[in-house]
Design a protein that fits this description.
The complex is a heterotrimer of chains A (254), B (242) and C (629). By secondary structure, chain A is of the alpha/beta class. Chain A contains 9 helices and 10 strands. The chains are: A alpha/beta (254), B alpha/beta (242), C mainly alpha (629).
């Protein structure tokens, strides 16, 4: 059974078709990369799956249930975690409080006004941070972290509600090659251990070729190809609109 | 050899309580392309912003064409002929492409050789960036990411700079656009503009640069010919963690 | 009323729209580039009127009159340039609220300067030579001068529009609107650009004020009236949109004209309805409706985040030992105060004012600091609390104790209704909508004589006999104040408090982890309204009366000053700020004639010297900024 089905999704902005009849699906335990030139409609597509944008037409199904008219917070409650292109965390909370915030929400305790939030499931939050290698920095303000670390905190937040699906918009943007590989290796591990599905966009080819099970390619709002790494790598159409000759592409490293 | 076009000595910079740069030395000679490499947070962008006067708390001596610009304000530095194309593009999305170019326009200059420089005009730029020509009257915000990246560079060129600080042009753009960027840098180099290029993408930087500095935690850890770094696996592993 | 009468009123509205547009276009232009909401813009308008008065006294004839108009605009433009160079230039990087505070301080200084130079009497302007007559329109007389104004408005719109769209200066201004730092890095002298924009905006306001002189006398109250109108027009039209400002000016002026034209109607079921009374409420109602339907105004766009580079707030830490000791010591001292100073002391009266002020400031801080919602109309909830108490005591005959409790409900109910609209907006628009609701409450109270007593207010609102003694009421106020402060503090450290700060830090992330941002903000708004209502109730019983004056926009601004004075980032900030503000106001106002100007200058000094507020500055000095590295 498919975890996520995107069915004929369309969205226009001021007459320009940003996403034009895009369909694909994602199975549990699969890492699916969405690639394409800038402005191809990747982020728009993401925002529709996540509920931030309403689609003009088409559906998004999660476990066969239509989620395309739900706001982001409802979609999160159904088990979809999200990381953003420009990492979004709570800068004035500490690292561990950021994760606790997600746990509080998951437990449905957002409206409690008397108990102390600092004590709420701190151990569980620390455990999540340990998974992404951020436990030592748990009590630092999130606003002072290095960018790569913020991205890892974001991942820990996204994991707090035991998601079935992770949406990661350029998860490794702004990271050094080594950090990229670490983060994606971690993601890969989570996918295997927990059987969650991951949909991510990416411009770093070593990440895409190194970690994706399958790829979908968008260009000018249309889905122009999908398949496994080798099929996409050799697709002349994709070469023409996206890869180019490959002379500036960083090679995947073992 | 004559003195460098741009020379930076003992540059230090801080944001709030955090010191980002620790006594940086680097130089850029007329007509050369120099890569400034290093991982994220190493201080590449801060170096460029400090040179441009966009970081308040900076120390050290920066000279451009022999003139001390350590305490100059950003617009004075730009008017001295040093251009800046920031990493996050920062085009004026509500303005048309032509208006973006207009904002960057500065009077023609005398070239480094003493002869009048051919000033950059929209027409001359459109030859270099064919995509922009079609977009002239469109709002810049409506263009694709790659086109916006090109516009950032074109806008800077309208100031007829002797040198450009080009901050991570390949970040977050498709490989095919990076390739176009490489071609563009090589054609710019032919016109005599010097470029300091901050990058994390080694194959791209290697394609266009003559020399390289590697930055780590706010200090220069390696400097030399690009060719040498490419062949020095040890240095690459050490400083770029590749 | 006849059709021709209505038509002439509408024409009259067109004339008003012109000066309104001149005023608002300058404000919009200045905001667009500098991102400063110039509170002093009404003062510039007022200066235009006064300067024009002085000039027309000396210059006669048609040529002299119009030259005087032009010169007034130039003079105000020059004053604007001076303000930009001496003050604003130093605070472009300061938090938005500080900029507002600084420009508000300017209004105080200008107000006293005007009183000092021109005196407190209204100054009647001359009629425009050559245009002093009237023309007949549909059998009614219509002033020629107003016809001239109807032409001037669109003319200025066209000129400014051409300047912005067809010149290099215009391209630079529009570029700076989006990213001023980048414009500088491209070789444009930002300082010069900003000064020129501010000067132009000021000159437009000055011209508006000057042109209004033949229709309306120059008076020292023009500034606040003008800034209120200007805010409404700019927000309804969309911040930064000139055509929007024009359309909005037309809309507002016409609706006001219509209200006047309709006059008083008798209702079929008895009683009368007086439309002219709605002029005050009407513009704010229009604004509220527009903002709810189109959150960025008629022709505006969502505001892009401004690059200020301000570091994020540091996480809240529970009070440490020192803070606790200081807190308990202060509380002990306050409990002992009546015993020390004696029962009839003025210190008790001032202290009660301070307790009420603290409660007011702390409730405002709750939404402003941790909530990130900059309320400019907090006086509304204070007023609703005060009037709820006063009216229930006097009209419904409720016992005083119950009436005081109802003040909490009054504030909460107001926040419940208004908050529902407000939390749909953010940033400047949120601030303006809260301001609008504040003004609506004020105008309703002011004009609904039958129920609220109109401008006389409600009198005879005294506490129950057992609370009547000053020192007893002192303890009541102290107890309410401490309870309110501790309650809000407790909430801030609860899951709800964390969620509130989360919504401030990142709406995107909050939404992505299941937090209903608007609902959290709404509830916080109601909690603050309740506490603020209690402050209002305490106020009414401490003074024995309540009047529209005490709940005007001035009180909202006082609240902002208190919070910013103490510092937004700390929980003790608003407490210290309220105490310091009220003490200063009390001691300055009693001894100095030009106390407003003094207060204004003091605020300016504070803003320039302590951008983090008093508590923030002390912390920094002690090296206690929790910036761990």
């Amino acid at each position: 059974m498919s975890l996520l089905v995107v069915d004929r999704l369309c969205k226009s902005f001021g007459g320009v078709r940003a996403v034009d009849d895009v369909s694909f699906s994602l199975a549990p335990g699969e890492l699916l990369a969405m690639i394409g030139p800038n402005g191809a409609g990747k982020t728009t597509c993401f925002n529709m799956i996540n509920g931030q944008l309403a689609a003009d037409s088409g559906r998004v199904l999660l476990h066969d249930a239509d989620i395309s008219r739900l706001p982001p917070r409802e979609i999160w409650k159904r088990g979809v975690g999200r990381t953003f292109q420009i990492a979004a965390t709570f800068a004035s909370l500490t690292v561990v409080e950021n994760v606790q915030m997600a746990l509080i929400s998951h437990a449905g305790r957002l409206y409690r006004m008397w108990s102390r939030a600092a004590a709420f499931e701190r151990e569980k939050a620390l455990a999540l941070l340990a998974q992404v290698g951020m436990a030592e920095q748990a009590d630092r303000p999130c606003g002072v972290l290095a960018y790569g670390d913020v991205k890892r905190v974001e991942l820990a937040i996204a994991l707090a509600n035991e998601p079935k699906l992770l949406l990661m918009d350029e998860p490794t943007a702004g990271m050094a090659p080594k950090e990229r590989n670490e983060l994606m290796a971690l993601t890969r591990k989570l996918v295997v251990e927990r059987g969650i599905g991951v949909l991510f966009t990416e411009h770093s080819m070593d990440v895409v070729f190194g970690y994706a099970d399958r790829l979908v390619v968008l260009a000018r709002g249309k889905l122009i190809a999908q398949g496994d790494v080798d099929a996409i790598r050799n697709d002349p159409n994709v070469r023409a609109v996206y890869f180019g000759s490959g002379k500036t592409v960083e090679r995947a490293r073992a | 050899m004559s003195e460098p076009l741009l020379s930076v000595r003992g540059l230090e910079a801080r944001y709030g309580a955090a010191q980002i740069l620790f006594g940086l030395d680097l130089e850029l000679n007329a007509g050369e392309v120099v890569a400034l490499m290093g991982r994220n947070g190493a201080g590449k962008s801060t170096t460029m912003k400090s040179i441009m006067g966009l970081v308040d708390r900076r120390q050290g001596r920066i000279t451009f064409r022999g003139r001390d610009i350590s305490h100059a304000r950003p617009h004075e530095i730009a008017r001295a002929g040093l251009g800046y194309a920031p990493e996050d593009r920062r085009i004026f999305s509500d303005l048309t492409v032509m208006e973006n170019l207009e904002v960057g326009r500065q009077p023609p200059r005398i070239g480094l050789d003493g002869a009048p420089m051919t000033p950059w005009t929209p027409d001359r730029l459109f030859a270099l960036f064919p995509n922009l020509a079609e977009a002239g009257d469109r709002a810049a915000g409506r263009m694709s990411g790659g086109e916006q990246q090109m516009l950032t560079v074109a806008r800077t060129l309208m100031g007829n700079p002797y040198a450009i600080l080009l901050d991570e042009p390949s970040e977050g753009v498709a490989p095919i656009i990076v390739e176009q960027m490489a071609d563009m840098i090589l054609s710019l180099k032919k016109t005599g503009v010097a470029i300091l290029l901050s990058e994390q993408n080694l194959p791209f930087a290697a394609l266009v640069s003559d020399r390289v500095y590697v930055l780590e935690k706010g200090e220069i850890r390696y400097s030399g010919a690009m060719r040498a770094l490419e062949q020095d696996e040890e240095a690459r592993r050490l400083y770029l963690e590749v | 009323m006849s059709l021709s009468g209505i038509l002439v009123q509408m024409l009259n509205g067109l004339a008003s729209a012109s000066t309104l547009f001149l005023l608002a276009s300058g404000l919009s232009l200045i905001f667009g580039v500098t991102r400063i909401v110039n509170f002093a813009h009404g003062s510039l308008f007022m200066l235009g009127a006064y300067i024009a008065w002085s000039l027309t006294e000396r210059m006669s004839g048609a040529l002299g009159f119009w030259a005087a108009m032009g010169l007034s605009a130039l003079a105000v433009g020059a004053i604007g340039a001076a303000i930009e160079m001496l003050l604003l230039r130093r605070i472009y990087r300061a938090p938005e609220l500080f900029q507002l505070l600084a420009t508000f301080a300017l209004t105080l200084v200008v107000r006293d300067a005007v009183l000092g130079v021109w005196g407190s009497e209204d100054l009647l302007g001359p009629r425009a030579p050559g245009l002093s007559g009237s023309v007949e329109i549909l059998g009614r007389r219509f002033p020629q001068y107003d016809l001239a104004l109807i032409v001037i408005g669109p003319l200025v719109l066209a000129l400014v529009w051409l300047l912005l769209r067809r010149t290099r200066w215009g391209a630079l201004v529009r570029a700076a609107t989006q990213d001023r730092e980048m414009v500088g890095a491209l070789g444009v002298n930002q300082s010069l650009l900003f000064t020129s924009v501010f000067a132009l905006g000021a000159a437009l306001a000055g011209l508006g004020g000057a042109l209004q002189l033949p229709r309306e006398p120059a008076s020292a109250g023009l500034d606040l009236a003008a800034i209120g109108d200007a805010f409404v027009v700019v927000v309804v039209g969309g911040m930064g949109s000139l055509p929007g400002a024009f359309v909005a000016a037309l809309l507002i002026a016409e609706i006001k004209a219509l209200c006047i034209a309709l006059g008083t109607w008798s209702l079929p079921w008895g009683g009368t309805i007086s439309f002219p009374k709605f002029t005050l409420v009407a513009e704010f109602l229009v604004m509220a409706i527009v903002l709810v339907v189109r959150p960025w105004g008629l022709m505006g766009k969502p505001q892009a985040a401004v690059r200020t580079g301000a570091p994020p707030e540091t996480p809240l830490a529970p009070a440490d030992a020192t803070t606790r000791i200081i807190g308990f010591a202060t509380l002990g001292a306050l409990a002992a105060l009546p015993l020390i100073v004696g029962v009839g002391s003025y210190a008790l009266v001032l202290s009660i004012d301070i307790f009420i002020g603290v409660l007011f400031a702390v409730s405002l801080h709750f939404v402003m600091g941790p909530g990130g919602m900059h309320s400019f109309g907090h006086a509304a909830y204070f007023g609703l609390g005060a009037y709820a108490s006063g009216l229930l005591l006097k009209s419904a005959g409720l016992p005083m104790e119950l009436a005081l409790v109802m003040s909490i409900l009054g504030g909460a109910l107001g926040a419940f209704v208004f908050g529902w609209f407000c939390v749909r907006l953010s940033g400047v628009y949120f601030a303006m909508l809260t301001l609008a609701f504040g003004q609506i409450v004020w105008s309703v109270v002011f004009q609904w004589d039958e129920v609220t007593g109109g401008s006389n207010g409600v009198i005879g609102v005294w506490p129950a006999p057992w609370l009547a003694a000053k020192q007893t009421y002192y303890y009541l106020a102290l107890a309410c104040c401490v309870a309110g402060v501790l309650l809000l503090r407790r909430i801030l450290f609860s899951p709800f408090g964390y969620a509130l700060r989360a919504t401030r830090d990142s709406v995107l992330r909050s939404d992505a982890i299941g937090i209903d941002v608007q609902r959290i903000q709404w509830i916080a708004f109601i909690v603050a309204g309740a506490v603020c209502g209690l402050a209002g109730g305490l106020f009414a019983f401490s003074k024995g009366s309540i009047s529209p004056e005490t709940i005007s926009v001035g009180r909202s601004i006082d609240g902002l000053v208190m919070v910013l004075l103490g510092g937004v980032e700390t929980l003790s900030g608003p407490i210290v700020g309220a105490a310091a503000f009220l003490f200063l106001q009390d001691s300055i106002a009693r001894h100095i004639e030009y106390w407003r100007a003094m207060l204004g200058l003091l605020i300016l000094v504070l803003v320039l010297a302590f951008p983090d507020g008093i508590v923030g500055a002390v912390r920094k000095r002690l090296g206690k900024g929790s910036q761990q590295t």
